[in-house]
């Protein structure tokens, strides 16, 4: 009987201790932000010719810093519909969010409901940041330097549009010149196509006009010329712009430390 009493007493003491932690705002379920408050969830949005796994090196670094990270599956079908799919995913996340877009993924985060207080900042990684009425293809061609068009292999779709792939034979030199050849062979084989209509779809009201933004520019990008990236960063009033000289379009794969560092600044 005495043993049972001691066990009940111990259980009650444990419950009181947990309650006390809750009263003082201490929780193991929600990470605390160094500056106070809840750490934001980092939501990563991939672009064309890639998938969520392209963020893996960045995810590892952010998780080591204690952040919750979600690398969403971007449908790559159209700017508006892709943004709606992202909004649906964001609706399931509690607390603040930092949105990160690579390449075409930048156009998607530009068109989400990021004006919601939930989204505290936007990070563009070698990405499109269109103004209202602009399309990704238009921005890629704004300044000389993009060689993407000549590397594409279209696959006709039943609706008359096309899925676009980068030809595997030129994938590395076009998309990921600073990534090891064995790795780029895998990336070429597993690339996800983008619908051509998505690259030509006009953007809506830009989230960057009302949400703080950070930009990482890839200095040797053959998809989006550096000058185009710089133009978009300047126009958006970027809080911080990091230029990585010699970095290919696949900068999240080749330079994950630089990408993670900028995301952490935006999350701070």
Automatic annotation (TrEMBL):
Annotated signal sequence range: 1-31
Pfam families: Abhydrolase_6
Gene Ontology MF: a single term: catalytic activity
Ranges where the AB hydrolase-1 domain occurs: 42-261
Signal among keywords: yes
Keyword Signal: yes
Keywords tagged on the record: Signal
Name of the protein in its database record: Pimeloyl-ACP methyl ester carboxylesterase
